[in-house]
């Protein structure tokens, strides 16, 4: 079976959706699925992932997280590139990532089946990023467009049960077309006990109890809340150290850390190569994800879990579904509760071990990519791919 994946994003970029695309591609390989990824000109190639890129625009060297005025032009070039690739590759199924991928896939699919892979509501994400107001006529138009987009594909892959419910209740997608396919993790790559002593020396973390955040550095990810909570954590646990790993606003957050006088207890690393992420997480005692979005995917939780890290997150349907009873959930936006939860875990090694072991087991049994890949293969076959 041949699958053309449309990735209207600067793949690969060490973050959320990109990681899902990469892991799906790798997990499908043992099932005899040949995948070709069509993506933007910016980004970097990954060994073992067959990729075709749209032509470069000289004035576009990077893209921000969220909306960019360059995207319409890049999407048009991607559509033309994918059309040429489809003629040569002969895919049985078109697999479009994100809402843009669903739109491009619909234009490209023809008689082929289209599978849309969505991380959450597009209008909700744009509002979370501050690119769209919560209400108003423009938002109303965007919602009507989103409704049309999500009702077109033969199957819609929802990254959480909460979003699957939203697709039927709010966006009126027939339930028979929706398949819950959560983000997954490779538990052989992300695992406890990886050697990280060299990194510990590099960042001066000897004798420190480390809280790790790995992901997009942005307010909607709760990074501002985390920094607001941090002085209370250090007051309770003086040897605590916060490791903020990610991008794109790492310079701005370094400046904020310095201005707040937190440089002795907070390190902003910048972008971390995904291949090195397991070792970086091996530095941590506790992991954290105070993400403010209610329905958007949160794949970093799975990496934390597979590494055996007790995890603190803002409460919400996605976090509850992923972490289960072993997670430590606090009310969304409650900075004081966030600080208390982090300090409590740091001060309780036995509880850390108990929760970390339970989360690791949950990651392996319920979110391992080998099992999720079989579910995805069944989706392809259901919509008309060869058996």
Attribute tags:
alpha/beta, 6-stranded parallel beta sheet
Biggest sheet layout: 7 strands, parallel
Q: Care to count the β-strands?
A: 13
DSSP helix fraction: 40-55%
The overall average pLDDT, rounded, is: 94
Strand content: 15-25%
| Rg computed from alpha carbons, rounded to a whole number of angstroms | 21 Å
Order of helices and strands: EHEEHEHEHHEHEHEHEHEHEHEHEHHH
Query: Largest sheet, order of strands side by side?
Result: 3-2-1-4-5-6-7
Counted by DSSP, the helix tally is 15
Structural class: alpha/beta
Give the overall shape, derived from the CA principal axes: globular
Description:
43% of the residues lie in helices and 17% in strands. By secondary structure, it is an alpha/beta fold. The strands form two sheets. A seven-stranded parallel β-sheet has the order 3-2-1-4-5-6-7, sandwiched between helices. Strand 6 (155-158), helix 6 and strand 7 (178-180) form a beta-alpha-beta unit. The radius of gyration is 21 Å and the shape is globular.
State the gist of this model.
The chain has 387 residues and is an alpha/beta fold.
């Amino acid at each position: 079976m041949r699958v053309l994946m449309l990735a209207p994003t600067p793949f690969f970029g060490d973050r959320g959706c990109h990681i899902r695309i990469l892991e799906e591609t790798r997990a499908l390989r043992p099932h005899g699925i040949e995948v070709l990824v069509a993506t933007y000109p910016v980004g970097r190639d990954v060994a073992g992932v067959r990729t075709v890129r749209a032509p470069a625009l000289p004035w576009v060297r990077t893209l921000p997280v969220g909306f960019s005025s360059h995207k319409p032009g890049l999407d048009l070039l991607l559509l033309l590139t994918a059309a040429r690739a489809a003629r040569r590759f002969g895919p049985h199924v078109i697999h479009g990532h994100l809402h843009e991928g669903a739109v491009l896939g619909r234009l490209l699919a023809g008689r082929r089946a289209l599978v849309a892979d969505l991380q959450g509501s597009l209008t909700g994400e744009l509002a979370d990023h501050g690119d769209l107001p919560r209400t108003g006529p423009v938002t109303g138009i965007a919602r009507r467009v989103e409704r049309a987009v999500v009702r077109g594909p033969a199957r819609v892959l929802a990254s959480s049960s909460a979003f699957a419910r939203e697709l039927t209740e709010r966006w009126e997608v027939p339930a028979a077309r929706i398949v819950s396919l959560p983000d997954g993790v490779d538990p052989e790559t992300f695992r406890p006990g990886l050697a990280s002593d060299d990194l510990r020396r590099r960042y001066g973390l000897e004798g420190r109890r480390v809280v790790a955040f790995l992901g997009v550095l942005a307010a909607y990810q709760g990074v501002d809340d985390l920094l607001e909570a941090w002085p209370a954590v250090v007051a309770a646990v003086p040897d605590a150290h916060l490791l903020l790993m990610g991008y794109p606003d790492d310079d701005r957050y370094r400046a904020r850390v310095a201005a707040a006088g937190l440089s002795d207890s907070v390190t902003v690393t910048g972008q971390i190569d995904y291949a090195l992420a397991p070792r970086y997480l091996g530095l941590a005692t506790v992991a954290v994800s105070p993400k403010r979005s209610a329905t958007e995917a949160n794949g970093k939780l799975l990496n934390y879990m597979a590494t055996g890290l007790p995890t603190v997150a803002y409460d919400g349907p996605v976090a509850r579904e992923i972490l289960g009873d072993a997670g430590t959930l606090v009310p969304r936006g409650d900075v004081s509760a966030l600080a208390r939860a982090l300090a409590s875990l740091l001060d309780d090694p036995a509880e850390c071990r108990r929760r970390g072991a339970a989360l690791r087991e949950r990651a392996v049994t319920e979110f391992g990519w080998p099992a999720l890949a079989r579910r995805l293969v069944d989706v392809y076959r259901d919509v008309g791919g060869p058996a």
